[in-house]
């Protein structure tokens, strides 16, 4: 390497460090103030949690400035909401999260393969993130509409710190299984209905060969797809099925009281009736109710809840 190249590399490193150190402090303060996790911050950007982590630790070889700018923008947007007087609903241990947590613990202990099914918005992903946060050895992956076998193996390789570039799929599979074998780690695939069914077959293979628990989480239509596809017989035969419902009245009460500590029984009943037991809906409703109250300088009433319900784009 030429002296000029070394000099340029050193200058780039110094510039990255000059931005990284104050950026790391901004992130620390932001997470502490908002109660968000680093992974949640990454999800607000176009970058992965691994990339954000590498930038924070001075190990990212790509465009550090682009990642920092994206994270700063996301934090500024979130802080604007925070400073606008809208209290974000923190994690509440609902009957659904307790059911999911119990199921994951049993599947982990017994090293079983599980299928958790529940309607959209009931809080499955929230519960999974909390479980993964409390159990760092857990590998939580979220599928999207482009999710195929190669994507799964690449994501697992990244989580396991296994090099995957220019590695054949069968060799990468062997490396992943060897790394996971009898490790006690758990793989969880969330939003699995969006993934190609072959992804589930690969997870079944990893489950068989590595002797670790594997959990697939999705909407009811995923269960239908698995049952109707004859190629999924080996997958379904190994699965323990867990089906979750909706929030109960106590769950909604606990969520509302994180924002409105002295809410009357009539108001709590209205929140429950309006939300229909859907976690994402009650969270959105609580944010909009706060904004309406702030805008109109008024107290919390049942009419305010109904107004917020009419203004929400999503519906229960």
Shape: globular
Could you give the distance between the termini?
62 Å
Number of helices: 15
Within the largest sheet, what's the order of strands? 2-3-4-1-5
Q: Considering DSSP H and I runs of 4 or more, what fraction of the residues is helical?
A: 55-70%
**Sheet/helix structural class:** alpha/beta
- Arithmetic mean pLDDT: 88
Quick summary:
By secondary structure, the chain is an alpha/beta fold. Helices cover 60% and strands 7% of the residues. It starts with a helix and ends in a 5-residue tail after the last helix.
What does this protein structure show overall?
It is globular, with a radius of gyration of 22 Å. The protein is α/β, with parallel strands linked by helices. The chain has 15 helices and five strands. A five-stranded parallel beta sheet has the order 2-3-4-1-5, with helices on both faces. 60% of the residues lie in helices and 7% in strands. The protein starts with a helix and ends in a 5-residue tail after the last helix. Strand 3, helix 9 (197-210) and strand 4 form a beta-alpha-beta unit.
Topology:
Layout: H1 3-34, H2 38-43, H3 49-56, H4 64-83, H5 95-110, E1 113-117, H6 124-134, E2 139-142, H7 149-159, H8 169-180, E3 187-190, H9 197-210, E4 214-218, H10 220-228, H11 233-236, E5 239-243, H12 249-256, H13 265-275, H14 279-296, H15 302-311
Parallel strand pairs: 1-4, 1-5, 2-3, 3-4
